[in-house]
Every structure is written in C-alpha cells, then in structure tokens.
Task: structure prediction
Amino acid sequence: MKKLLLSLALVATCLASAQNNTSYWQQHVDYKMEVDMNVDNFQYTGSQELVYTNNSPDTLDRVFYHLYFNAFQPGSEMDVRSLTIKDPDRRVGDRISKLTEEEQGYLRVSSLDQNGNELSYEEVGTVLEVELDEPILPGEKATFNMEFEGQVPEQIRRSGRNSSEGVALSMSQWFPKMAEYDFEGWHAAPYIGREFHGVWGDFDVKLTIDKDYTVAASGYLQNPEEIGHGYSDKEVQAEGDTHTWHFVAPKVHDFTWAADPEYIHDKRTAEDGTVLHFFYKDNDEIKENWKNLQEKTEELLLFFNENIGPYPWDQYTVAQGGDGGMEYAMLTLITGERNFGSLVGVTAHELAHAWFQHLMATNESKHEWMDEGFTSYISSAAMNQVMETYAENPHTGSYRGYMQLANSGVEQPQTTQADRYNLNAAYGAAAYSKGAVFLAQLGYIIGKDNLDKTLKRYYDEWKFKHPTPNDFIRIAEKVSGAELDWYLNDWTRTTASIDYAIKEVTEADENSTKVTLERHNLMPMPIDITVRYSNGEEEMIYIPLQMMRWEKPAEHENWTVAKDWAWAYPTYELNIDKPLSEIESIEIDESQLMADVKRDNNLYTAEEPSQEKEGKE
Ligand SMILES: [Zn+2]
Result:
C-alpha cells in the first residue's frame, strides 16, 4: 500500500508543481553501483553508471561530483578550517592534520566517460570538475560511466572506520556524488564542515563485503535469502568469503550504509506498515536501551506521520555508527552508548529529518535553519508526547538558545552559508534554536491551528522536492491569509531582535485606563496582551501588525481586537474600558512564544494598595 503511495506521490508532485509553480523543475539521477570493500585495509573499488536527466531549461557543458572523503586529509579545507576556527568541533580538532597515509580518506576517479566518450576532469579537493564531451540539452539524458577507488578514513566526522564505539564502517557520503544543479545554478560546495544537498533519484547498489559483516543500508535488500543476517530467518552459508548485498533505494537523494561483524539486527513492523530495522553492537551496556528504543521509534514515526504527513517508504533504519547523530536517506547513524532519554532524543531528531531533509530536501548549506530548525521544532513536540513530559511549551530549550545568541554579540543572520559562521556555536544556535523558534513563533503570529495546517500543506506540496524559504512562507500565507514576507525577511536575513515594552499605565478618566506600549528593537510583531482584573476576570487584547493586513483568529474566550499598530511608530496607545483601580496586571505575550529578548519590561502589576494606606497612618 505504501509503495502505491510513493508512486502516486510522484504523480501528485508533478500535478501540484504544475498547478502552483509552473517554473519549478528538478534534475534527476539514476545510479547503478557495484562496490567491493576490503575490510582488512578499508580500501574499496567501485563502478558507477549514472543516468543524468537534465530537466532544467539550460544547456549544461560541465558537471561536478562531490568527493567527500578527500576532506579527511592533512591540509584539506576541513582540516585547516578546524585548525583555525576559534571553537572547533571537538570530534575534529587537529585530528585530520595527524592522520597517516593509511588512516586518511580518499576518493579517486580512475576513469569517466559520457555516452562512451572519455572525459577530461580535474580533482580539486573534495570536488571533481568535469568538462563534458557534448553538452546536455534541456530535456536530454546523458549516461556517465565511472570507475573509482576509495579509502575509508578513521572515524572523525560523520563517516569513517573504527568509531569510538567500535563500529567498523560508517559509510555516508562515500561515493562520487553528482552535485545539484537548480534554478540558482550549480551547488558544488566543497566539504568543509557542513552540510549536504543532493539530486533526487533512484539508487541500485551491489556491495561485496566479508561474509561476517552485517550491513545496514538506505535501500531495500533485494536478496535476503542469499544473505541472512537477520534479513531472512534462514541461516545462510556463503560459498566464498564474501556476500554481495543488493540494495535498491527509490526516490532518495543519498545512499548510506554501515557494517559491522558484531551488529545485532532487530526488526519491528510499525502500525503504519513501515518495517523498522535496528543495528547495534553486541554490548551488554547498551542492549536494554536499544531494545526499549524500538517501541519509542514506532511512536515517534506515528507522531510525525500524523503531524507532518505519512512516511512514504516501507523501511527505516536506526543504526549505531557515526559520531553523534546524522540523517541519511531511509536511515540514521547515531552513537549508541547513551542514557535512554538521550538515545530516544537523538532518534527523534534524526527520524524527523526523514521529513525535513529527506522529503522536503532543502539546501542544508544555504538554509541550514530550515532542516535543523524544523526538525528541532517537531522532534521537541514529539519527545514531549512520547516521553510523557506534556510541557505546555516544549520549545523552551530552543528559546533559551536563541536568547543567548541574540544577547551574545556574535549572532550572524540565518542566511549565512553553513560553513561561513565565525563560530560553530553561532551556527548551532542560529540553525537549531533560532530555526525552531521560527516555527514556534510563527504559531504565535498566525495561531497554532494555522501553523499545524501549514506544516501539512508544506508536506503535500513539497515532498520529494527542494523547497526554499519563500516556498514555505508562501504556504503559511496561503493557509492563514496573513502577509508574512516581513517575518521571513527580518527573522532569517537580519539579526534584528524583538523587544516590546509596557512604558506607562495611567488613568485616562474614572472609567478607563491608558496603556502606552513601546517598540524598542527593529523586529516587528503583532502583540497579544493579557489583562487581569481585580474581580478575577481575564481579557486578551490582540494588537494586529498593520503590515500583515490580517487579524489572528480568537485565542481566548474574552478576546478583543484593538486597532492596528503600524511598525514605524515607536509607541502605541491602548485604551482599556476599565478604571485603573480594577486592573491587577497587564502582560505582553504571556505565552512567551514571542521571542522578546528583554522580558522584564513586559509586565505591569498594580501596586499593593495596603502599603500606601500604612504609609499614611
Ligand atoms: Zn539535525
């Protein structure tokens, strides 16, 4: 049933794009690879047939491949960047600079042809620059045949051999990978630190490896009866020393695998039919956590299905590997020696990336806040339910992270290329915390119902594609009816912050009260005000932001809409039809979903009248 969904989704995607954005197109790749891994020296050879479809309106006279493993060599951009940034990632530090020749990574192309004609190419660090024999015209296909050889580096960042937890092979970004070409041109970014962007397509991979190794991979195993290793119930005796594993991964933009001779392999079929695979080391310290993780992973999957949209593949894999947690197609590699909460937390985050990266495939180098921020937002909400915390606002950690950043003096706009932050810490807070706040705060601006609908429509219209920030905010505009371009612009492309204040509360006359509000910082916002009266009543007053040309639906049973606030006016006068003596408190954004960087000027409370009386006696 889910496979049907997948093919229907393709048709729906084409129709939707035809309806909504006739200019949208994306390139297509079909990879066939045969790879031979030598587990004694961690070297491998491969052949790759790549059928490339140019769906662009442009004629291409060159192409680029990523050769990510070349980053793990002394003197590489990744190495030098880590040696020169003030707060290097501790996993990298100076480790690349100290790798011996046997420990380094490399990926080398030994031959490449286009439709049978040999091509000239140049290896430039982590990128292969290729001059085409004949240009690829709009709508045409070209077939590239390549031979390559690689060496798996010591596990330093994301991929590698012999991880600190003893996983033999974490194989992400391991093959020559065609760079993305889209409406902005080529995205052949060198591999410096982060992150990835790929071309949608189908992968067919045959992997030959020592028969004792159990393999976790992106695709569906085509020959389980020949393999065993928990994929079939049969015990299989290999004829030689190796097995050849055949995987097929449809409609993905990445293919990752991991392998270890000591992997335990468990399976669980979730309620929606997805088969969850778990691979972890046979280590008594972690076994119980990894068993208990399996039910939680199903609950997380069902949460994301319900709150974003159905997971469309038939399989998802959680494998111990890598150096933290990283999302890949149909699979994640996470470190496994964690307490249970942390193990579920990292799985929640990486599984959420199956939507916010592996379905809505944003460019992680350019729009890092979209994949990391949206993932952080939805995984916090999922953890709140799955771990039965039930906090009213599950995003307070993200707000704290953003506040620290906003008050740190080192903030750079979220449009900064992911590698080009002065500090790794500034990248982290901008992408994860400020990115999550982008969504939580959008819920404040347009209302939670509209936010929930926006996420679902975003999935419907942009799955299996490459959405941009504008594509997302346009969905939010269409769902809510509000103008939101100001929010996307000021929040993501500047470091403007929010500070609204209650400047003064005075008696207007004996029946009414005048509240003077003030905007201190540049970021515009609509304002929710909660007023509490001495008779116990409560009122919510909503001040629309004029440039939104819209009013938020009522969020309180006693809901008053005040006149618009036009942004350029630094102050605003609000009249409340109650005498000052009957007002107990007035607060700007009691929900704290608006990321006001200075909250101590948001609250007015009536002075205790008893003190005055005492003074007079
Ligand atoms: Zn992430």
